[in-house]
């Protein structure tokens, strides 16, 4: 594995461990699963395959960000906007529906 | 005109933590409890950064008031993209008595000092739930205010703010300088990634005291007691509709 790829893999691991600290099932659970997943692929040498695996890891980072974001949004919405009617919610978010 | 943005951030108990009231009812337990940036402040920071990315703002300055640990929140703001930070250090004993009135005076002084023309704050902190700081800051400065902002558009001297109000949305035009308070749907804040946190360590954080700004922290409000909300009575499970109707009749509700 080239030094560049090796560095990228290490960075990905550190990033995953960092973001995994808030994983719902616990940071330690996540860390163990993450470690196991990386160890399973430790003998991969093909650069193309390594890059593919790195992409998969980056995808997981994005998924976790989305999970945390949604969890926070839903909690705050329930806590502060519980009295809001369904119609009001749609009205206030109409531009999101337009964009997405 | 380009905006020079001041963003206020507050270190609060993390939104997901179950709050426990201290046995002596003097406050809530904060020792060893996870703290993070007030969620509405994250939205405020995100909006400021987006303004800068879209070239509507030249600089984003993150400000926090509080004891030493408040600096953690500044670091998060810097990791999200703020250019530099200002920590107005308030010792823990004084901080307990500090509220929106004192904070608004601090922000007002800093806005003048830093020549900011836009202040973005979270609409309320999830611990105090006052929803006053933005309004008071605008009043102290005699600036326009756009509170409960769910959308911001800056065009020259004009700031168009879409506000969340009862029953829907209200659109107003403000003339800069202005104070804005961020509501939940203004944007979706970015996550402060590890590489950005590392980069943020190089960014400048200035330390000041309220005295340096000539602000008196005296408060005319004293917290007498903090208590749990009344316990919700446990519900009972029923086997079928007949039992449900029976129980409702028993309670005199049917």
UniProtKB/TrEMBL annotation, chain B:
Domain Electron transfer flavoprotein alpha/beta-subunit N-terminal: 25-217
Gene Ontology MF: a single term: electron transfer activity
Family: Belongs to the ETF beta-subunit/FixA family.
Keyword terms of this UniProt record: Electron transport, Mitochondrion, Transport
Gene that this polypeptide is encoded by: LOC100175883
UniProt entry tagged with the keyword Electron transport: yes
Statement: the UniProt record of this protein carries the keyword Electron transport: yes
Organism: Ciona intestinalis
A Pfam family of this chain: ETF
Alphabetical GO biological process terms: fatty acid beta-oxidation using acyl-CoA dehydrogenase
SUPFAM superfamilies reported in the protein's UniProt record: Adenine nucleotide alpha hydrolases-like (SSF52402)
InterPro entries the UniProt entry points to: ET-Flavoprotein_bsu_CS (IPR000049), ETF_a/b_N (IPR014730), ETF_b (IPR012255), ETF_beta_N (IPR033948), Rossmann-like_a/b/a_fold (IPR014729)
Protein name as annotated: Electron transfer flavoprotein subunit beta
Subunit and partners: Heterodimer composed of ETFA and ETFB. Identified in a complex that contains ETFA, ETFB and ETFRF1. Interacts with ACADM.
Superkingdom to which the source organism belongs: Eukaryota
């Amino acid at each position: 594995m080239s030094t560049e790829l090796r560095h990228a893999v290490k960075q990905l691991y550190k990033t995953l461990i960092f973001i995994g600290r808030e994983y719902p099932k616990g940071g330690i659970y996540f860390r163990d699963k993450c470690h196991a997943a990386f160890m399973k692929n430790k003998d991969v040498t093909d650069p193309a395959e390594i890059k593919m695996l790195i992409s998969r890891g980056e995808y997981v980072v994005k998924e976790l960000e989305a999970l945390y974001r949604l969890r926070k949004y839903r909690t705050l919405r329930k806590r502060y906007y519980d009295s809001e009617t369904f119609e009001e919610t749609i009205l206030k978010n109409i531009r999101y529906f337009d964009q997405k | 005109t380009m905006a020079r943005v001041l963003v206020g951030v507050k270190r609060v108990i993390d939104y997901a933590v179950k709050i426990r009231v201290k046995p002596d009812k003097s406050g809530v337990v904060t020792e060893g409890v996870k703290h993070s940036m007030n969620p509405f402040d994250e939205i405020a920071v995100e909006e400021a950064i987006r303004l800068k990315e879209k070239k509507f703002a030249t600089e984003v300055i993150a400000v926090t008031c509080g004891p030493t640990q408040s600096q953690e929140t500044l670091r998060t703001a810097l990791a999200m993209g703020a250019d530099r930070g200002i920590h107005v250090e308030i010792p823990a004993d004084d901080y307990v008595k500090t509220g929106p009135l004192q904070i608004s005076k601090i922000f007002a002084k800093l806005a003048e000092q830093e020549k900011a023309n836009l202040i973005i704050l979270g609409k309320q902190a999830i611990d105090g739930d006052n929803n006053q700081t933005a309004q008071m800051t605008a009043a102290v400065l005699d600036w326009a205010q756009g509170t409960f902002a769910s959308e911001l558009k800056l065009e020259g001297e004009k700031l168009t703010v879409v506000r969340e109000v009862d029953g829907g949305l209200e659109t107003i035009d403000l003339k800069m300088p202005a104070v804005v308070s961020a509501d939940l749907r203004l944007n979706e804040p970015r996550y402060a990634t590890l590489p950005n946190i590392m980069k943020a360590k190089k960014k400048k954080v200035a330390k000041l005291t309220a005295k340096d700004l000539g602000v008196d922290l005296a408060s005319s409000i004293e917290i007498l007691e903090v208590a749990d909300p009344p316990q919700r009575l446990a519900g009972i499970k029923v086997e079928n509709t007949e039992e449900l109707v029976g129980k409702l009749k028993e309670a005199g509700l049917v």
